[in-house]
Amino acid sequence: MRSTSRMPRPKALLGTGVILAFALTACEGEGAGSADPDPDADPSDLTAGVAMPTQTYERWLNDGAAVEEGLEELGYNVDLQYADDDIPTQSQQIDQMITQEVDVLIIASIDGSALTGQLDAAADAGIPVIAYDRLLTNSEDVDFYVTFDNYEVGVNQANALLYGLGVLDENFEEAQDAPEETLNIELFAGSLDDNNSHLFWEGAIDTLEPYIEDGTLEVTSGQTDIEQAATQRWEQETAQERMENLLTTHYSGDEELHGVLAPADPLSRGIIQALQNDGWGDTIEDGLPVVTGQDAEIASVSLIADGVQHSTIFKDTRQLADEAIVAAEAYLSGEEPEANDTETYDNGEIVVPSYLLDVEMVLEDNYEEILIDSEYYTQEQVDSGQL
């Protein structure tokens, strides 16, 4: 049976993202919201257009529902559309929202560079545009961006991997009893047309690179470029197929695989399925390599509780939806939303005023504290792996 060295998991969350201490007033750019809204308008006369990328991912269903519910509770009308990961469909949905004269747009894009025509039309119509979690690129017609610190997501994923491998201790410092042999890993990335994929990758690689350079880690396949590791549309089946190919090509003999950097939970589950099918064990305890993740999807949290998936990154989409609602209400009231980052997110045309939220690393020994105690999930949901 294949095995890997590993350290005990921590009892409490350590090494999470950077704490954001204060907010700065957003700079007025040349975004879409150039027309003067009526600050005295009744909310029932105003409509927010909300464009989400897909219903395939659990998190996007949650995001869309949270934004819709929050805005409707404030009295606004909401036009919520899902595009099933089809760029022409999303473009048409946003075109229709503009034609129907929505008063603000909240867009979680499939491809952040594919909507320049729609953003130009929104600007002409005086409709403010809020990029939701995924940056809208190559356009000056983006007013605001709400997201998580996506570089820190990658840092946390890499630290989770290093901790699971026993390279780092429970304080995320160099472990005194770290394995002496070189540990073999493989790297996965998200979809190249999602700007966040590049930020996740950058944070992870910046963290892992010193350990690769000093020989602590080795990417056995040699596939260390994001283009080689990318997973188009974040598809679970694509990740599973690539993992199967990596196992066949590089691990068909006695070569050990100790860990896999996976940037999202559906990819993690596809990778784990490939590993289990190839006889690498059912759980980490009996030899399954350490696999990271992101989004704290209920199926993956259940796997973490059972010792199958090592970790995930929790991005509390309730907070993200709240910030999107705050920004939308500001524009609908004729005001400017507040940003806590006015330097980082250059979309190729402008630096977009942004509001960044923190992230948390979820492990077997702290999922209850982070997810159950905060009422994000119930224990029954975790036990069943279903909402």
Looking at this protein, list some descriptive labels.
13% strand; Rossmann fold; 14 strands; 2 domains; 387 residues; elongated; disordered N terminus; 6-stranded parallel sheet; alpha/beta; 4-stranded parallel sheet
CATH superfamily of the largest domain: Response regulator
Measured distance between first and last alpha carbons: 34 Å
User: What level of helicity do the residues show?
Assistant: 25-40%
Average pLDDT, all residues: 91
Structural class: alpha/beta
Your description of this structure?
With 387 residues, the protein is an alpha/beta fold. The protein has twelve helices and 14 strands. It has helices at 58-73, 87-99, 116-124, 150-164, 195-213, 226-229, 236-250, 265-277, 298-305, 317-332, 367-372, 379-384, and strands at 24-25, 47-52, 77-82, 104-107, 129-132, 144-148, 183-187, 217-219, 259-261, 290-291, 312-314, 338-339, 354-357, 360-362. It has a six-stranded parallel beta sheet with strand order 3-2-4-5-6-13, with helices on both faces. Strands 8-7-9-10 form a four-stranded parallel beta sheet, with helices on both faces. The protein is elongated, with a radius of gyration of 21 Å. The protein starts with 23 loop residues before the first strand and ends with a helix.
